[in-house]
Design goal:
The chain is α+β, with helices and mostly antiparallel strands. It is built from 21 helices and 14 strands. It has a five-stranded antiparallel sheet. A five-stranded mixed sheet has the order 9-11-12-14-13, covered by helices on one side. Helix 2 packs antiparallel against helix 3, helix 8 packs antiparallel against helix 9 and helix 15 packs parallel to helix 17. The chain is elongated and about 115 Å long. About 5% of the residues have low confidence.
Amino acid sequence: MVNEPYAIFYQSAMALSLLVSLGVILLMWRRRRFPGALAMIVLAAATFIWTLGFLLEAYSDTLERQLFFCSVGYLGSMSVPVAWFVFSLQYVSGSRAITWRRLALLCVVPLTTMALVWTNEWHQLMWTDERLTTSGPFLITSKTYAPMFWIAMMYTYTLVLSGVFVLVRRLFVGPPLYAVQAVSLVVAVSLPLAWNFIYIFDLVPLPHKDLTPVAFAISGMAIALGVIRFRLFEAVPIARELILDQMKDGVVVFDNNNRLLELNPAAARILSVDYNAVGTELHDLARELPVMERLAEKCQGRKELALTLAGEKRFYEIETMSMHDRQGVQVGWLAMLHDITERIRAEKRLNELYEIEQRERRELEEIAQERGLFIEVLAHELWTPLTPVIASMTLLNETISGSKAGTIEHRLVSNAMSGIDGLASSVRDLLDLGRISKGTFKLNKQPLHPKEVVDSAVLKFQDQADKREQQLIVDMPDELPDIEADPLRVHQVLMNLLANASKFSNASEPIKLRVSVWERSLVFDVEDRGIGMTREEQQRLFKPYHTVRQDQHRFSGLGLGLAISKEIVESHGGSMWFSSERGKGSTFSFSLPLQSRT
């Protein structure tokens, strides 16, 4: 047999099939995280077993050995169609396309067939009349196939053709890259299927030796070509699951005849459209769902749409665009629905804040009559926090008009809110200072446990500390006497001192808050290891509009916080003091009288 040309061809082809199967296993193992890759590894391993069994069968010179290695080959040949079908489903629909229960059902017939093959001598359900004969240069086993063999073959062909159908149905509709992938995969499986059909029905005048595993060697080459040339397992259509299905924006795709081709879960939820609507024409959908009429307009560009979902009114921006193939021919169009509810609400909030700012500005202008410096400082300092608001909102609008993702929008809105908060804080400080100047500043004193106001300030400050990776250390006894104070104003003083400590400290530097009792007062100390102050700066520290000169351009603020905090503490009958050294940090302290005993 060795010296015959056809025998040499057969041996070489089978050896090539083994090598290619191993190569595919190694190649796919590096890409095992991609959908369908593990199924392809099983497919290649099954092909290897199939080839090895049939190759060893060809070298066997007894009927018993040939039947044994034929049975070994069946372990692989009956596994191939299951692996191929699972691969097809996972490749186009993701790893969740098939469950363990469905996989078990798919394996019922192959496992039964394998069992029947290995026990055929007892029941003869797979084949009968086994005998050795020759075909060309080969010594082969001739057999008459029994009914279970044909049932197994029908099942095998059904699974393989079903896998081909899944690929053709999904991959030939879409970008050209997917079509090339589909051709590569369909050719890869069609060759073995065609040769197996030729072999079983003996349609060509060649020695009767099964070359189906050899055809799978060619298939392995096709798959390898797909991996290397067309990025078969890197640019898979599963991008739909990884991108479209997880997108918060709704995506709806139509063909040129306005027939619905695809929609992602977000679009189905937004438009209240069932997946069964795929294939329905747009005008039919519009009759049942009025919201689809806006899509039916199919005008290029953007328009806004208000919808009520789960009893909540939400706003969406609809953008429609045409789709073209590589030749520039329009093949359909799509619509994207982007949720702009938060942007609308932010605009409304900005308008409300603007009205508040205008109202408080008018109040401040009345106070400014007594303080000539107020107008100049107000104009300058109100512009400082407004700058990031204006810049961020301008950039936000530009981003919304050209972006499909929401992450940058959130960042910009956060910047805008930061500027608004700075404006509100400055305005409140100016109002407090004005009331103090006019003598209209009032406190709402009440019995207060220190732990309540400390916990409240610590909780609110924690976010700021976390952002700068600063540790806040609180040293406070479990038992403290009550004080009589305005909780909001004491909270304001604590927040001001903690914010200053954080602002003028380096990232990761700890900040310490101590609470203690000294004589008939409750003392609060806020200590930092920040930049500290010079003697000159210390002399002007509690004066309004004063900020540390070296850091005026790094940190925003009117310089009113400490002046107002000192007025609040003294209005309670307490006092405020500090100690600081440039480059070594500062400690700010204030005391509040304990609640009087009656």
